[in-house]
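Protocol step 4 of 6: record predicted structures for both targets in the notebook before any analysis. Target 1:
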Amino acid sequence: MEIDRQATALREPNVWNVPPWFNKQQNRLEDEEENQEQIFQYSWTIPHYQVLHDQTPLGEYIFSDVFSCASGDGLHTHMWRLSLKPQSTNTYWGHVGGYLEAFQSVSEKVANLKSRTVAYQIKAYRLERDPTSNVAEKLVELASSKKTLTTFDFGTDSSSWGYHKFCETRNIFPNGDISTNVNLVIRVSIWNNSHHNNTHEKDLSFFERLFNDKRFSDVQFTFDDGSTIYAHRVILAARSTYFDKMFDGEWLETQNKKIQIIGVSFDTFHALLYYLYTKQIPTEFPIDNLAELYSEARMRVLPKLAHAAAGLLVEHAGTDNWDVVFMLGLKHDDSFLRQGGLKYAIKNWNQVVDDEKIKQIAEMGGMKAIEQLFSARYFGV
């Protein structure tokens, strides 16, 4: 098989999309005993594939839903999408192209990761009724790529890789009859072993090494519990207009070497300073503190940090905190947070409709909040 980057047309908005009812998905995570590598498998079932084969324009693509799995080290979410090119042109005539595309997740963006390296394998099956059983079905393997170690570069032509000659068309249709009803299954296996990705093994940058280093610091931030964070005025001032004014103005803190921090948790302020040094939120930062980090970033005029915290809040929205995300969006007039909370509530309406959180939202946000919630429920976000 020939491996190649997927054509740019994959990301063009006018491609022919698969109707929602074509997408049935199944995924599972398991350990391969022979080498302890972590495997994620996703199956894309396409009923009545012959319809797509007939109606998809020459050289264009059909897509699976976007799906996700955890990185090998558990620190990030990996987002993917499968695609097929039912009818290829020229050199690849008579073959179906099969591809895997990577999308940068919010956590990867926050960590400033520009690429992802994994091993992957794509297989194609035809779902047939088992002649030995009246109800059972069996998978007949049609094609299999090699297990390939590949680096996916986000937002470039190298974000998608695969095979132009993934599967011969004649193998898909029994007896070569392209009008035959075929239920096709495309399955991808992804080896997420963390040693494939060396981005976590790079040396600490100069600024990372300076963070909280007592030897060269000229300002200390102290907390009620006795904790101290050592920092550098010139770095904070260069990275933030808020701290620039603090250290070069008429504030009380201008000349003080020790600055007492009140009303902010140590973890949150530590993460805020760490971001100014590294442009990253610490991977071990508590999810429960994200709302506080977002508010602090807004107050200290750090829009990029606020955006990163908002992204993580929406990504981790759940039964316990969707209301916090929604109300935070209302408080700061942030449509991204507001809609993130709403989308979770609407998707899980039966679980949240009788929850005390609805009453709390009414008490805290008034009728405006309730109107937005029910408007989204019945008319969409």
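Target 2:
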Amino acid sequence: NESTTHDTRMVLVTSNFHILRTAILARHLDLDAEVTGARTAFYYLPSAILREYTAILFEYKWINAVACLAMAALPLLVTVAAISSHELPVGVHGPDR
């Protein structure tokens, strides 16, 4: 039984709007790959890019959910902290101004 290792480099070719998701998948699979894209008709790009963006959001839904909740909670936490310390955030004036 001869054990050999292959350092295989590869080029993955896909539509240009699939490049990011393909690169993410290649990295996840620990592939030493370069990703390149073939041209896509200009009229097709807006919907294709939106679908790819949505696919990435759903693929990492828990990370994105936690990040969105943290960003949504931050203004509330700042407001609660300002009220509890009786100070208003910069740019917010009290009722007597």
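Step 5 preliminary note on target 2. The two ends are 84 Å apart (CA to CA). Residues 61-97 form one domain.
Proceed to step 6 after PI sign-off.
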